[in-house]
Amino acid sequence: KDMVTPAQAKALKKEGYKLIGSHSAVKLCRWTKHQLRGRGGCYKHTFYGITSYQCMEATPSLACANKCVFCWRHHKNPVGTSWKWKADDPEAIVAEAVDLHVAMIKECRGVPGVVDWRWRDAHTVRHCALSLVGEPIMYPRINELLGELHGRRISTFLVTNAQFPEAIRTLRPVTQLYVSVDAPNEADLVEVDRPLFGDAWDRLRASLVLLREKRQRTVARLTLVKGHNERDVAGYAGLVALGEPTLVEVKGVTFCGKSDASDLTMENCPWHHEVVAFCEALAAALAANHPGAPEYRIACSHKHSVSVLLARVDQLATLDDSGAVVSWNTWIDYDKFHDLERAHAATGAPFGVEDYAVPAPPWALFGAAEDGFDPVDTRVYKKKANGKSR
């Protein structure tokens, strides 16, 4: 049967989603449009060096096993705990996703501020954020879909809600694998994620344990919601120590407007300095309470999206003799990744985090005057109703 009902399809299309087949979708990210206009890139540009205007946001599964309070899709997508729908062909999904994405790029021509050479380059997709909506690894042919993307030399940033550990276990290498860590303890997880699985906490912990087995880049992704999940720093430290991810992304929740699906308000949105303080406390808790865990330090910051990046010192830092960081190698050599991934697919040749890491530029680093804003672009300020900016 089809995953999406006619009513759900209508609601998703109204919000700008382009539906593909019976269970996939693509949508033009606002950061893609921002960078097309020379107004700055997303946090992935700052942290990892993607080209935001060449990034496609997509999903092969509109369905999800959670109904998170901070979901910006307002729960207009289906839910489920197992795949019970027909599975479309992965080659066809990727081909149509790219075609639809490029068609949306073409529509941007003539929009005030669009940089012509960026618009032309944007017709070539170089990155795919598999994070649009739903749970991508629910799709039973996810490994084939990843192979199709890599075959086109499109990098893969795959986000999972940590409810399908077995799918994580069997996942082929991706450019960067995210596990959403939405709460530090079981009670907060149930409150924030509103999971369908009764054993959601055990599934999260099992997913983090499996991250240790991945040789490529892994990320624990934390979304802080004031008043809901930000107080138990020690609990988060325990989960990070469990997974030992390459990176820990901490983001303040984004307010997406009122809806019947959530009662969040602007009061639940942390300020950037509060996210920085949380990251400092998290790094300290890891060092104090988990001496066997890797050392993490703050590497990068993207103030515009209230995002801060902690990175493993042993994998991504170049240190001087005193132990001070000389460079943070959080950026990715994407061509190198594709060459390594292709060799791995053909011969099983192993490759790891350090093999495709390159230094981040000074403006991307925590403490830089630019606050993570690429200086080649132009900062545009919109007047806030209260005169403040986060």
Automatic annotation (TrEMBL):
It comes from the Eukaryota. It catalyses: N(1)-methylguanosine(37) in tRNA(Phe) + pyruvate + S-adenosyl-L-methionine = 4-demethylwyosine(37) in tRNA(Phe) + 5'-deoxyadenosine + L-methionine + CO2 + H2O. CDD domains: Radical_SAM. Keywords: 4Fe-4S, Iron, Iron-sulfur, Lyase, Metal-binding, S-adenosyl-L-methionine, tRNA processing. Residues 62-235 form the Radical SAM core domain. The keyword RNA-binding does not apply. Pfam families: Radical_SAM, Wyosine_form. Its cofactor is [4Fe-4S] cluster. Coiled coil: none annotated. One of its GO terms (molecular function) is metal ion binding. One of its GO terms (biological process) is wybutosine biosynthetic process. Residues 243-312 form the tRNA wybutosine-synthesis domain. PANTHER family: S-ADENOSYL-L-METHIONINE-DEPENDENT TRNA 4-DEMETHYLWYOSINE SYNTHASE, S-ADENOSYL-L-METHIONINE-DEPENDENT TRNA 4-DEMETHYLWYOSINE SYNTHASE TYW1-RELATED. This is Uncharacterized protein. It comes from Aureococcus anophagefferens. The lineage of its organism: Eukaryota, Sar, Stramenopiles, Ochrophyta, Pelagophyceae.
